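ok, trying the design again with the full structure, not the truncated one.
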């Protein structure tokens, strides 16, 4: 009789633990953070600023890691943990590859690589590690400034006057400012 009561108590405790475990799993947030990056141009310069939006409506953004992978080697750009919970965050960064990576570009100044962004939330999923959202995009870094060849300019320029200059650039430009002097 005593053995039967002990077995029954053990079964009730086990059933209670199983119910608590199921309730924990059901109540856990399983959605990974979203990472939104605006479309990147074909060529990026090292001073080009990227503004990424991290969004997690459930438990909030806990941390972000940004890295640049070039020739199989990863260069961390940002590793940041946030103290307070916010559902959305803007993260701004520039693609500044180290000199070692520029040297691997075969002295052309052009590097091809992959941009990796990883955002983690405050969820209790993954044994408290949170859910992780990932974003990857191929990037081309152009470290060489374009060269300008003057093809024509005004013959007589008076002090305080204006002049027209025509030039040809060594590569397609988004905008141009030419300083003579």
């Amino acid at each position: 009789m005593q053995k039967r009561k002990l077995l029954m108590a053990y079964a009730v405790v086990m059933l209670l633990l199983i119910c608590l475990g199921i309730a924990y799993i059901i109540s856990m947030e399983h959605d990974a953070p979203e990472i939104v990056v605006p479309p990147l141009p074909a060529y990026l310069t090292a001073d080009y600023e990227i503004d990424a939006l991290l969004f997690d409506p459930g438990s909030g953004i806990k941390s972000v890691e940004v890295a640049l992978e070039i020739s199989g080697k990863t260069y961390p750009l940002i590793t940041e943990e946030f103290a307070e919970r916010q559902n959305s965050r803007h993260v701004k960064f520039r693609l500044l590859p180290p000199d070692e990576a520029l040297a691997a570009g075969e002295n052309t100044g052009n590097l091809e690589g992959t941009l990796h962004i990883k955002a983690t939330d405050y969820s209790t999923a993954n044994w408290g590690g949170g859910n992780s959202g990932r974003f990857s995009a191929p990037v081309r870094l152009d470290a060489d400034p374009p060269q300008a060849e003057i093809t024509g300019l005004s013959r007589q320029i008076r002090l305080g006057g204006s002049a027209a200059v025509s030039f040809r650039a060594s590569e397609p430009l988004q905008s141009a400012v030419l300083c003579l002097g």
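Keeping the full-length input from now on. The two ends are 105 Å apart (CA to CA).
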